[in-house]
Design goal:
mainly alpha, single chain
């Protein structure tokens, strides 16, 4: 697939509404559920790797949504499409590890556990949850109604308290309607 010019891209209000109603909420939900499964379920290596990869894919997607200043593809939707806001990017170490360990087939992969993603996952989660909460809080009135009528879609199950405690210690709180062994795998 080749990238097309992103000049004069027009995203319709319908595209933005659909993004808020479906895609943004799905990305956050999958990020949290992947993390929750990594932290609470004992599983074999294949399942662990699948959840690590799922987490990283959704983390990278949300990081792009919050922090990119220009589109990679004409149909990309960015947080800035909903109004001017500033978000903290994931730590560069986390982004680089996701790129090297998950997204790209590269000689930069490692077999050494200490250099894998396990330490970066909770840090990335804290940043992305903080950004998600801020994004929702700062939505302009023309988009806020979507969130107000569907606030519980992201999380249907409470987040286990060890995850809440971990996020609180990282200065992040979870504002979504809601209630951990992340060292395994990739």
């Amino acid at each position: 697939m080749t990238r097309r010019s992103t000049e004069n891209v027009f995203t319709t209000p319908g595209d933005l509404e659909e993004c808020l109603q479906e895609y943004f909420q799905y990305e956050v939900w999958m990020l949290l559920k992947s993390f929750q499964r990594l932290c609470t379920i004992s599983m074999d290596r294949i399942a662990t790797n699948a959840y690590v990869e799922s987490f990283c894919l959704h983390a990278r997607s949300l990081d792009d949504f919050f922090t990119k200043s220009s589109r990679s593809y004409p149909t990309d939707i960015l947080a800035k499409d909903f109004g001017p806001q500033h978000f903290s990017p994931m730590k560069i170490e986390a982004r680089e590890k996701i790129n090297h360990q998950i997204v790209h087939l590269t000689s930069g992969k490692t077999k050494v556990d200490a250099y894998k993603l396990s330490i970066e996952i909770p840090k990335a989660l804290g940043t992305l949850i903080t950004n998600s909460n801020e994004f929702i809080k700062c939505l302009p009135p023309q988009w806020k109604y979507i969130w107000d009528i569907r606030p519980n879609k992201i999380i249907h199950d409470p987040i286990p308290s060890p995850i809440v405690m971990m996020l609180n210690s990282a200065n992040a709180t979870i504002g979504f309607s809601s209630s951990s062994n992340a060292s395994r795998g990739r």
